[in-house]
Structure formats: structure tokens, C-alpha cells
Automatic annotation (TrEMBL):
Stored InterPro entries: PH-like_dom_sf, PH_domain
Pfam family, one: PH
Stated name of the protein: PH domain-containing protein
Organism: Macrostomum lignano
Domain (PH): residue spans on this chain: 20-124
């Protein structure tokens, strides 16, 4: 439906040892109802999933740590990422089915570049393609 919690048990991609995340850190997220910008901690997980929670998990961060924090998770493999007007360094992620849009904003130009690069790499790895030109169903505009 909207967002799903990261499963605490052993899912298909959760059993293998986790590689270091391609990207992690704070982003600003616009709330759905009041449209206020709130700071959230985000991490790009294995399998092209973006997890975010109000605060980072402690210590070694595994998928089960994120579940404890009740993290939300977006699958990036069939999404569109595009600039968001009206706020500097802001972008929105639209799910492939069009049912969910998440508005995020980086805190610096360097952070924005890091996240955009990580999204492109995650998308290419998930689909087995190479870079931004692979035909994946997910695009960064």
C-alpha cells in the first residue's frame, strides 16, 4: 500500500551479510498532511530500497534494526525521481504504480549529488543494467 515496514525476519535479501550502504545520512522529508519539512535519517539498503526513519538505528545497522525503528521503505526499481519546484535541493520519488509520492530535500549540494548518484547505481544494479541509460522503469529527471 503506501509504505511498508522493513521486515524483521529473514527475507530474501536480508539473509546475506550486508554490504556498506551506497548512501546514508539525513534528508528533509515533507509530511503528507501538513506539508512541513522534517529531518529523517535515510539509508539505501540492498536491493535498491530506500529506508527512512526519524532517527538512525544504533550500532551496526541491519534491516532488523530499521524494523525496530519502524522505518518506512521504498523500492526504487520502478520509480521516477524528479526535481521538486519551490525548494532548493528538493526532489520527489514517485512509485511506479503512481500511488505514492515522497518529497525529500538534501541539506547541501554535495549531499544531493551523493544521493542522486547512489539512486542511479542502485537502480542499475537492481535491474542488471549499466548506469542511467539502462531501460529500468525508474528514471531520474
Amino acid at each position: 500500500q503506501m509504505s511498508e515496514e522493513v521486515p524483521a525476519g529473514g527475507g530474501n535479501a536480508l539473509e546475506a551479510p550486508a554490504a556498506p550502504p551506497a548512501a546514508e545520512g539525513y534528508l528533509q522529508k515533507r509530511s503528507r498532511i501538513l506539508h512541513r519539512w522534517e529531518r529523517v535519517y535515510c539509508r539505501l539498503l540492498d536491493g535498491g530500497r530506500l529506508a527512512y526513519a526519524s532517527e538512525p538505528p544504533n550500532g551496526e545497522s541491519t534491516a532488523s534494526d530499521w524494523a525496530v525503528k519502524r522505518a518506512k521503505c521504498l523500492q526504487l526499481s520502478a520509480c521516477t525521481i524528479r526535481p521538486l519546484a519551490g525548494r532548493e535541493r528538493a526532489f520527489e520519488i514517485l512509485t511506479g504504480d503512481g500511488r505514492q509520492t515522497v518529497a525529500l530535500s538534501a541539506e547541501s549540494d554535495e549531499d544531493l549529488d551523493m544521493w542522486m548518484s547512489a539512486f542511479l547505481v542502485a537502480r542499475a544494479e537492481r535491474r542488471g543494467g549499466s548506469g542511467a541509460n539502462s531501460n529500468t522503469g525508474c528514471s531520474v529527471q
